[in-house]
Amino acid sequence: MNTEIGVEPLSTAELNFFLTVQNMCGKMTYIDYPKLRNYIVIDPTCLIDVLKSIVTSVPIIASLLQGRLTKSDLTNIWSSEKFSHFLQHEEYFRQLLVYYDILSEVRRYDRKSGKKIYVDRYIVPCMITTQNTTTFVEKHLTSGKCVGFVFTFSASDVPDAIPCRIIASILSIWNVKNYENVDLLFSGFVAVVLDRKHDLVVRTEHNTVAVYIVHKEKKS
Predict the structure, then answer these.
(1) Looking at the record's lineage, which domain of life comes first (predicted)?
(2) Which residues, listed in sequence order, are joined to residue 146 by a DSSP beta bridge?
């Protein structure tokens, strides 16, 4: 078409730059990222409907109250008449939700081979409302086995999106720590196992984000 009207076509680099700018302006959605860069969403507001499809499924899928969603659950949600149009590009929308840290893939690896083990489950941090009522904080975060960093924001409260994205990113790498038969994953709080000797804890409260490394043996 450009050739017919005498307009020189954009090069690959120019096209990528154009699409990136349009994405930044909110006029379309284009993510230059593996599994996403081959798609352009002309109406970015449809992404709101993608998130809405998950949020409004709470009465049907009770596990969402604990921030857990299986991949088959997501397929069933999008199989409904209201959201069936997402099924045509199901994998793209899955990957988009992961990219934006709305969904966090649960990753497991074989200890001997190191190969990834398939897990039919996502974590949805923004849906977690359960509060931490365990004794983990009192027994471990205030002990001599712990070192931490606290980041304080000038605003009175940390925006909800920040802890959700931090928690989603952490969960995509490490496994949730189980303490006294309870997974330490709560609203604004997560503890994961770094290795055999260390745990990582992220805790958000009001206008602070705290990161702790907990040694299973007393630090020297």
Answers:
(1) Eukaryota
(2) 214
